From TrEMBL:
Residues 35-171 form the Phosphotyrosine protein phosphatase I domain. Pfam families: LMWPc (PF01451). GO terms for biological process: response to arsenic-containing substance. Residues 18-29 have a biased composition (Basic and acidic residues). Keywords: Arsenical resistance. Residues 1-32 are annotated as: Disordered. This is Arsenate reductase. The keyword Amino-acid biosynthesis does not apply.
């Protein structure tokens, strides 16, 4: 199942469907639908880029979506591009950008900021000193640290893709 997208009702691998998932986001508050979301990770090359591509794929223009990294320096990850390509999403044109670059280009006016790493969460909380946005932390493993064969490494990216896809569909619907 690693190579295929999760259906809307599926839970991440290993989850006990009879117990509530503590990592699952709470449903949106009535009357407060998210209209804009920013995904943030360390370099905007894997996790936040993947989340941006998935959210755009699932919600089109009904939700304004961007992503950024805390720091610059990493190119777009080819394993992330491959994992998304498997489910029909082309992320090959993604270019990593930092929070500073995004703020300079278009500002940081988002209803929701989703941080995907501890460093990104710290940066997101700092942003809320000057930006009125809800911040949610979705701890997401870094697939770049996976080892093994190409297929084993790609499985780590698929797991991140599928986990983010599940959470995004649940939170932004």
């Amino acid at each position: 199942m690693s190579g295929s997208p999760l259906p809307d009702s599926a839970a991440p691998a290993g989850a006990d469907p009879s117990k509530p998932d503590p990592a699952k986001p709470e449903p949106p508050k009535p009357g407060k639908r998210v209209q804009s979301v920013l995904f943030v990770c360390n370099f905007n090359a894997v996790r936040s880029a993947c989340a941006e591509a998935l959210a755009r794929h699932y919600f089109g223009k009904s939700v304004y979506v961007q992503s950024a990294g805390v720091r610059s320096g990493e190119p777009t990850d080819p394993f992330m591009v491959s994992a998304l390509d498997e489910i029909g999403i082309d992320a090959s044109r993604h270019r990593p950008r930092t929070l500073e670059e995004l703020e300079e280009w278009e500002g940081l006016n988002f209803d929701l900021i989703v941080s995907l790493s501890p460093e990104a969460h710290h940066a997101a909380l700092e942003l809320t000193r000057t930006v009125a946005a809800d911040v949610e932390y979705w701890p997401t493993p870094d697939p770049t640290v996976s080892q093994g064969s190409r297929e084993q490494r790609l499985d780590a990216y698929r797991d991140v893709r599928d986990g983010l896809g599940f959470r995004i569909r649940q939170r932004l619907r």
